[in-house]
Amino acid sequence: MDTISAFARRVGLTPSALRFYDDCGVLPPARVDPDTGYRYYSADQEHAAALLRTLRQAEVPLADITAVLTGAPSVARDVLTAHARRLRARADSAHAAVEAALRMVELPTHGEVSVGGAELASAIRQVQSAAARSGDIAELRCVLVEWTAEVLRLVATDRYRLAVRELVPTSVVGPANHVLVPVDALVDALPWAVRHDVVRCVLASDGARLVAQRSDGDPAELPLPSVDGEFPDYRLLLDALPARECRVVTDRVALLDALAAADGTVVLETAAEAVHVGERTVPAVCSGTARLGFDPAVLAPAVDAGVGPDVLLEIVAPDRPTIVRSADQGSFTTLVMPVLLD
To answer: Does 66 reside within a domain?
Structure first.
């Protein structure tokens, strides 16, 4: 049996993504320790996890993934053939993404983490809205960029909102590390990052910088300012949340459409196989019951910033933050505060 971290390294997913798939009922662990709650995975699950990772790269919805993983081969073929037809119009861009992922840069020689340029740009866009733009606390006007051998994580918070985006790095050199980068500097780096297939975040004695390989073979560099300070312990905030009363798995686009149609505070109420969002009903898989209100202008950006075709809402209580989670190879987590209903 492998721990969740060891299994994650083996199959190219992050531990948080594996937890997401467990919570959604797609890839439960082989065993859960009844005393500690630790998840353990067997070698027999490697194929399913690798297939799951590939299917998520192809943007296959979770409901279809479950059919592929648990159904007969003929069912899996029918599901995947139907999905392939839906993706036909996007085949050129998908092929370009695969080619970009296959291209490798020369082995780095510094302490650094490497990730796709488009992935990094997307992650910056997703978390930047949660960072403070004013105030006396410099750390809150920054994005925490931290990495280990398993994951590259971008975190932003203004103490009212929290956004955490995890990516699977293509390579890591040196020990786990972190740097606080002003959010405005990262936003300014977006156009630069998206132009390169692979971007390396290098942290050295002379400071932080982004490095990429140009088409002419010479390296391109973009210095990054950094802030010395202590970023809030976001893990304590997440761990302090009570047990979730209800989980809702639904289609991200359908939920966004329902929120866009709402006028003012929208009431979200779970049903047997759906969630009612204002006047709209969206198909969903619900575990538990809940009724609470949201400001669409707050919930919609959190859902829109997600990754993959599905979103998981973990509802604690009508007066406690709701956790909005999604995942592809990595994961995106943000907290949204409900609105009290009369």
So the answer is: yes
CA–CA separation, 25 and 29 (whole Å): 10
Complete DSSP assignment for 112-126: EEEEEHHHHHHHHHH
pLDDT band with cut points at 50, 70 and 90 for residue 91:
low
List the domain range (segments joined by +) for residue 190: 103-235
- Give the list of residues 6+ apart from residue 309 with CB closer than 8 angstroms, or none: 59, 60, 61, 62, 251, 252, 253
Please say whether the beta carbons of 153 and 165 come within 8 A. Answer: yes
Residue 342 placed within a domain: no
| Together in a domain, 113 and 229 | yes
CB 111, CB 175: distance < 8 Å = yes
From CA 194, how far away is CA 198, in angstroms rounded?
A: 9
What type of residue sits at position 38?
Y
DSSP string, 144-178: EEEE-SS-EEEEEE-SS-EEEEEE--SEEESS-EE
- Residue at a domain's end among 65, 100, 135: 100
* 10 and 59 housed in the same domain: yes
Question: DSSP readout, 234-291?
Answer: HHHHHHHSPPPSEEEEEEHHHHHHHHHT--SSEEEEE-SSEEEETTEEEEEEEES--E
Mean pLDDT of 306-332: 86
Of 59-73, 182-196, 284-298, give the lowest mean pLDDT range: 59-73
Report yes or no: 284 and 249 within 8 Å, Cβ to Cβ.
Answer: yes
Q: Are residues 44 and 55 in the same domain?
A: yes
64, part of any domain: yes
Contact 291, 269 (CB under 8 A): yes
Token couple for 295: 């400001």
Say if residue 125 is in the same domain as residue 220: yes
Residues 113 and 41 in one domain: no
* pLDDT tens-place string over residues 208-247: 999 997 766 667 899 999 999 999 998 887 887 777 889 9
Number of H helices, E strands in the chain: 11, 20
Q: How many domains does the chain have?
A: 3
